[in-house]
Design goal:
The protein is mainly α. The protein is built from 10 helices and 2 strands; from the N terminus they run ααααββαααααα. Pfam families: FCD, GntR.
Length: 247
């Protein structure tokens, strides 16, 4: 993509409205995050600090901080000679990430469930009910994250909560994809109602068991996606070998 084409693409994708100086980092981070999660910024595209600073009419400092935050959420990664680029939809180590999520979120549940109030349970139920009628997969991904975070919200370990939220942010992009492509919405909703019922009853270990089952569905979806991706990537190589044999 030539420079002028990329500038036009970024302008159409992100807009070019100049944010107030004191909100620049937050606004730029949220614009980029939404565009990545919604697939409007494709994997592999480089996001250069000066290009973004010029687009939004700000210095490079808030852009640099926004990019760092997105890298911490695994939405960007730094590559040699390219700088920050949009990360792949799912990485090869995603199943390991889910195994870690099960450990972290299980502990968050153990800390949080005994302290959840009727208002917390009602709020979580509200997110599920919104998921029942929502058709925008971008909003569905956000509602899913909000539902889970309510159940973990009373955990007393703030560093644990930060790690849990980072994991949910990392998953949100793939979740939006697999809900749409793999028709997992209704299955996930059944899991959500089961989680809510057990959490509302204060049954810690039963809720942890339900969460583990729920997250393992994510592992299955990831393995299915990676299997298809490997098969697609193998097709050009097989075709090339076939041409070499026939020449």
């Amino acid at each position: 993509m030539r420079r002028t084409e990329k500038e036009q693409f970024l302008r159409e994708t992100l807009g070019d409205e100049q944010p107030p100086a004191h909100l620049a980092r937050t606004v730029i981070e949220e614009k980029l995050r939404s565009a990545i999660l919604e697939g409007r910024l494709p994997a592999g595209i480089a996001l250069r600090q000066q290009e973004l600073a010029t687009l939004f009419g700000v210095s490079r400092m808030p852009v640099r901080e926004a990019l760092r935050q997105l890298e911490a959420q695994s939405l960007l990664r730094v590559e040699t000679h390219k700088g920050a680029v949009v990360a792949p939809l799912i990485n090869e180590d995603a199943t390991d990430a889910y195994a870690l999520r099960i450990l972290l979120e299980s502990e968050a549940l153990r800390q949080s469930i005994p302290l959840l109030t009727a208002e917390d349970i009602s709020m979580a139920r509200g997110y599920i009910e919104q998921l029942e009628v929502e058709t925008d997969y971008s909003i569905m991904g956000t509602l899913n994250r909000q539902f889970h975070m309510v159940l973990y919200s009373k955990a007393h370990n703030t560093r644990l909560l930060k790690l849990v939220e980072d994991g949910l942010n990392e998953e949100e992009r793939f979740l939006r994809f697999n809900l749409k492509q793999m028709n997992l919405g209704k299955v996930s909703q059944r899991d959500h109602y089961e989680l809510l019922e057990r959490a509302g009853a204060g049954d810690v270990e039963a809720t942890v068991e339900a969460l583990t089952h729920h997250l393992n569905r994510g592992v299955e979806a990831i393995n299915a996606y990676l299997s298809v991706r490997k098969a697609e990537e193998a097709k050009p190589a097989a075709a090339s070998r076939k041409r070499a044999v026939t020449q």
